[in-house]
Design goal:
Chain lengths: 208, 201
């Protein structure tokens, strides 16, 4: 009986993103590389290594930005993500996400989806905020240096890692005709269409 | 609910105005230039904007309302504006970061469920108040449809509390602000703090 599985979902999603990335123009690839200032997952193996890596500040070179499927076709040229899985004090794994957008030309934006900071603090809630140096400041991007990277910190609608991932991809694709279509597409290509419903239900519960 | 929201907005705006008035002249000048002087400089103007915005229909005297200067390091001034759209309320948020450096966001309730933005969301914005107010310093290449980050709710009170928390933080930010705004009114204080917790945690 299939059940919700973040890693499985990310693999299907990454597979589609990499496939579409492979047919991107050389101009888009060059600008993405220049703006990101770090490696992009150019194939499934590199994407899956990234997904499987537990980040410990010394292994950032194992993490590559994973291309996301391009939908809708306008507005933002390309999007990339990295799941940042980290081992915490009690052995549990916390999951955050880095999101990078190549908007146009060499104009880009970056966001990070973070779990709540320690209590009491100002960011003691799950949130998404702008970013300009990614992966704990180890990657310097071409994002405008004056963009604020502590505030605003938008409250996320969820604390569950799977839902945070769904929130991130919904923010890029939209809902109806967007993430719904992407999910249908990736499960259909995997020959597992019936499983789409599991994730669509989860998405619906989260968004309504 | 409308009255609960109105009361909170006016109390919050009053505190924002006090701090705006006390802010240094240079930062206020930068903000006034960015917003083309469309800033509520006193309670009467702020309250008129809030009443007109919640009523709907638009008002050419609409002004951006200064937010309290609590936390939001790296940002000089924040301003908000409620906007009634049919039977729902959205909020515009303007951040003035420096000279010719501004950002705008829109906190929107869900569009109809069959639309791509059929969920409460936050998106970047290049022009405010239904695209009628231009802000200087917002890069024109910024995308204004995507990303559209999901919010927990499309209820106006929760949208406002999410927006305010995004610039002040929670435990040592918006929670303290709400407590101070209603320090002598335990009933409303508890009610707003409960609503805040429901919106954020």
């Amino acid at each position: 009986m299939p059940s919700l599985d973040l890693m499985d979902l990310m693999k299907l999603y990454a597979r589609e993103g990499v496939a579409q990335w492979n047919s991107a123009s050389s101009d888009v690839k060059r600008r993405s590389q220049e703006c990101l200032g770090t490696a992009i997952a150019e194939n499934e193996d590199e994407a899956f290594v990234t997904l499987a890596t537990i980040y410990n500040t010394r292994n950032a070179n194992r993490l590559r930005f994973i291309p996301m499927p391009k939908r809708p076709k306008h507005g933002i040229e390309r999007c990339f993500f990295i799941p940042v899985r980290e081992m915490k004090d009690r052995g549990e794994i916390a999951v955050g996400f880095e999101l990078f957008l190549l908007v146009s030309h060499r104009n880009c934006l970056a966001f990070r989806f973070e779990a709540a900071h320690g209590f009491p603090s100002v960011h003691d809630y799950n949130h998404v905020q702008l970013s300009n140096q990614m992966l704990r400041r180890t990657i310097t991007t071409a994002v405008l240096p004056w963009l604020p990277n502590r505030y605003p910190a938008f409250p996320l609608s969820t604390t569950n890692p799977l839902r945070v991932f769904l929130a991130m991809i919904t923010s890029i694709h939209g809902y109806t005709g967007g993430v719904v279509s992407v999910l249908q597409d990736i499960f259909q290509k995997a020959g597992r269409s019936p499983e789409t419903l599991l994730y669509l239900d989860e998405l619906k519960k989260m968004l309504t | 609910l409308d009255e609960e929201l109105r009361k909170l907005l006016k109390r919050y705006a009053a505190e924002g105005l006090v701090q705006w008035t006390e802010a240094d002249i240079t930062s206020r000048a930068i903000a006034r230039t960015a917003l083309g002087n469309r800033i509520a400089e006193g309670e009467f103007e702020a309250n008129r904007t809030i009443d007109a915005s919640l009523k709907g229909g638009g008002d050419e005297r609409t002004l951006f309302i200064p937010m309290p200067i609590v936390n939001h390091s790296d940002i000089l001034h924040c301003f908000f504006l409620p906007i009634k759209v049919q039977e729902t309320i959205a909020f515009d948020l303007v951040l003035v970061i420096g000279v010719e450096q501004s950002l705008g966001f829109r906190f929107e309730p869900a569009d109809p469920p069959t639309w791509t933005h059929g969920y409460g969301h936050i998106q970047m914005n290049r022009s405010m108040f239904g695209k009628t107010l231009e802000i200087k310093g917002i890069p024109q290449w910024l995308p204004d449809s995507y990303p559209a980050f999901p919010m927990r709710s499309s209820e106006p009170l929760q949208i406002f509390l999410s927006m305010a928390t995004s610039v002040h933080g929670y435990e040592k930010g918006m929670k303290e602000i709400v407590s101070q705004l209603f320090a002598s009114e335990p009933g409303p204080r508890k009610k707003y703090l409960n609503a805040l917790e429901a919106a954020i945690i």
